[in-house]
Amino acid sequence: MSFQSKLWIVIFLVGSTALAVAGQQAAATGEPLSIRTVNLSKANLRQQYRYRLEAQGGVSPLQWRLTSGSLAPGLALGEDGILSGVPTRAGEFRFTVTVRDSGKPVYERSQELVLRVVTPLLAEWSEYPKINGQRVEGAIKVSNGTDRDFDLTVIILAVNEIGRATAVGYQHVTLKQETSELAIPFGENLPPGAYEVNVDVVAEVPAIDTIYRARLVTKEKLQVRQGQ
Q: Has residue 53 got a pLDDT over 60?
């Protein structure tokens, strides 16, 4: 074999090796790593939550971790980027996640996220029940913390010492999504006796076959006296 032929073979082998190395480096680097998730869906208090964080680029497999801040109690972030669990406290939780790829060199990207944990249905006293003459009066306020409308039913009863119940308030309304503190007043005349006021609130969401409930009860008996 001539010297020139040998030279061409060497050049070919060197070129092939260089291309192979370049291909391996490209495969190990991949396209730039970035985090696509910048917003999280709301979580409902004491209900199962699951959200997959998304990234693009980089070299698989990717590995996620919490690098600052705190998740809502009851939630955890897996290395696969799945945020899941049952939150046990409502509020706004701010934290930073970091995703790391398997490239050479390794690349990382971080993103601050905010998760809102809301109470789907909240019922509170806005005017604590009181006796005015022979009449019991008060008001409640209800809130819808979800992104769906509620078919809401409110039943308010005054129950005396022998268990006899008198309806003192009733509402059947559509409680729009993310409505805060809708006031529902109540009042009714009652015969003499000692009464406990019971409030039952039921919110139906037919689209997802879900029912939320809330209940309020007075801390003490309310006395209605003869001729008061």
A: yes
Query: Is the model's pLDDT at 28 over the cut of 90?
Result: no
Residues 6+ apart with CB under 8 A from 100: 62, 63, 64, 65, 106, 107, 108
Handedness of CA 168, 144, 218, 183 (dihedral sign): negative
- The identity of residue 112, as a single letter, is E
Contact criterion met (CB below 8 Å) for 81 and 109: no
CATH assignment of 34-118?
2.60.40.10
pTM, two decimals, is: 0.69
Q: How big is the CA angle at 224 (ends 219 and 228), to the nearest 5 degrees?
A: 140
Architecture of domain 121-224: Sandwich (2.60)
- CATH 2.60.40.10 maps onto the chain at 34-118, 121-224
Tens of pLDDT, residues 85-129: 999 999 999 999 999 999 999 999 999 999 999 999 999 999 999
Q: Which percentage of the chain shows pLDDT scores above 70?
A: 86
